[in-house]
Amino acid sequence: SSLYIGAAIAKAMARQDFGAIKATVAGKSLEQVSEEVQQEMDLLKNARVDIAITGESGAGKSSLVNALQGMSDDDEHPAKTGVIETATKPTPYLYPPFPNFTIWDLPGIGTPDFKADKYRKQVKLDRYDFFIVVAERSTENDTKLIREIKKMKKRFYFVRTKVDLCIEVERDKKKFSEKETLEDIRENCEENLKKAGEPLPTVFLISRKELDKYDFPRLVEQMQKDQDFIKKDILTMFMPVLTKQGLKQKKEAMEKYIWKLAFLSCAIVFTPIPGLSLACDISILVSGMYLIYKVFGLDDESLYITAKRVGKTFEELKSAIQNLGSLVGGANSFVCTHFKLKNFLKDVMKDAENVLAKAADSDLLIVWTSPPQCQ
Q1: Is 1 a domain residue?
Q2: Where is the IRG-type G domain (predicted)?
Q3: Which domain holds residue 308?
Q4: Does residue 13 form part of some domain?
């Protein structure tokens, strides 16, 4: 019976010390577990994540959009950048494997067409999950914007851009200290955020040209940490990888995804249609492998983007991929699906670390997933 199979799976997991999954299965039939897993998968597939990049005109909003996409400002389809405001309406940038994951480039607040007192209604601030407020310096318009976001009881992340330019300006002074300069910039921004009603302000200092430097990795990690479990998984899967810790987080997210696929594979075994189990298992296996491959940025499109950003050739980065096996071969219910995907994930992790290491001697050490596309 399905109850017996569910118990057998629980025993198998107990031998591997899979506590969390064992708790999910305990006392439930296979049908119950499969239904819950399917609901979670549907939630992951259908949940929306809308990130708004906002701030004053010319502060570097579009450049940050491009950075989060893994694209240069001069790539084929980036968000347009320039010294004047280039976004005339909220512009969405989509991520093809997960079309409900959208980065929005909002028009600059305080321009003639987007006055601060009408900005919330004009750009429909209420529709976004959270905000990245981009500023080259703290201004009154930034303060008004943050107050509006706080009224909506939504999260925001204050990003001070172009800190590399500030460092260069200060570098010629006799008593120059990069650390002290960064502290001065941070403290100035924090004081302005306190005036906007933020009692414990957090400021992220970033350089568009050196995203691995300063606070950009911390910004990505904090955004992931602050989300609920579904949106956290979505951000973890599709945001850029800048460190080995980032790779580890992706691995953990994909391990949970693999368990869900394995349970669905197990449920299909008991569908009384000849040949359906094998066909569905193969489909589950291949789709799972493809997503893992893409999430870690090892597909050709992602490698081309990474190569361009780190100043290496596609062939150099491709040569670091040595562990991936063939996608040929069928799964066989829970055990086979689970262990095939787990082994595949191990190989992907090794290759992702190799690609990260291959880029290590360049100025920018980043592995990106494939970029979103403008709608």
Answers
A1: no
A2: 47-226
A3: 240-374
A4: no
Q: Is 72:141 a contact under the CB 8 Å cutoff?
A: no
Inside any domain, residue 258: yes
Shared domain for 213 and 307, answered yes or no, is no
Give the separation between CA 224 and CA 220, rounded to whole angstroms. Answer: 6
Helices and strands counted in the chain (H then E): 15, 7
Q: What is the dihedral of CA 292, 294, 299, 305, to 10 degrees?
A: -140
CATH number at residue 229: 3.40.50.300
pLDDT tens, 270-296? 454 444 444 455 666 777 787 788 888
Please give the Cα distance from 229 to 140 (Å, whole number): 35
Is residue 82 located within the same domain as residue 176?
Answer: yes
Contact in structure between 295 and 233 (CB atoms under 8 Å): no
* Whether the Cβ atoms of residue 145 and residue 54 lie closer than 8 Å to each other: yes
Tally the domains of the chain.
2
Whether residue 254 sits in one domain with residue 186:
no
Separation of alpha carbons 282 and 327, rounded Å? 10
d(CA 257, CA 209): 34
Mean pLDDT of 182-196: 88
Residues 77 and 134 in one domain: yes
**What's residue 327's pLDDT?**
46
Alpha carbon distances (Å) from 164 to 8, 200, 202, 205: 58, 25, 19, 9
Q: CA–CA separation, 135 vs 158, rounded Å? A: 8
Query: Smallest Cα–Cα separation from 159: which of 220, 108, 118?
Result: 220
In the numeric block, which tokens belong to residue 96? 């093809």
Per-residue pLDDT of 210-221, as tens digits, reads 777 789 888 988
211: which DSSP letter?
T
β-pairing verdict for 373-374 and 91-95: antiparallel
% residues pLDDT > 90 (the chain): 13
Higher pLDDT, 368 or 193: 193
Q: Ramachandran region of residue 156, left (φ > 0), alpha (ψ -120 to 50) or beta?
A: beta
Same-domain check for residues 264 and 134: no
| Closest C-alpha to 94, from 103, 107, 81 | 103
